[in-house]
Design a protein that fits this description.
Distance between the termini: 34 Å
Largest sheet: 2 strands, parallel
Mean pLDDT: 83
Number of helices: 3
Shape: globular
Strand content: 5-15%
CATH topology: Rossmann fold
Helix content: 40-55%
CATH superfamily: NAD(P)-binding Rossmann-like Domain
CATH class: Alpha Beta
CATH architecture: 3-Layer(aba) Sandwich
Low-confidence stretches: none
Structural class: alpha+beta
Strand order of the largest sheet: 1-2
Number of domains: 1
Radius of gyration: 14 Å
Number of strands: 2
Length: about 80
């Protein structure tokens, strides 16, 4: 839960500076653990990490909806989704 709370508090602090400027980007970090199905969780024991990642992705969507009209983009990055060159 610490990671989710940290993402929330940091995003809110950053947004307070971005809203008056009507510009900015908030980047959050997640992992593929957020999308593991029940079957996959049996083989990849992630504990609460997958739940925290899912919460961060939901937070990112919520922030994007609230801050988008203010000119602020919110991007959630899953590092495993970046192709290696």
């Amino acid at each position: 839960m610490t990671g989710t709370k940290t993402h929330f508090l940091t995003a809110i602090a950053a947004a307070r500076h971005m809203v008056p400027k009507r510009s900015g980007v908030i980047l959050t970090l997640s992992s593929s653990a957020a999308g593991l199905s029940g079957r996959d969780r049996r083989y990849h024991l992630t504990g609460g990490f997958s739940t925290a990642c899912a919460a961060i992705e939901a937070l990112s969507r919520s922030l994007a909806g609230e801050l988008g009209p203010q000119g602020i983009r919110v991007v959630c990055l899953r590092p495993d989704a970046i192709p290696e060159t």
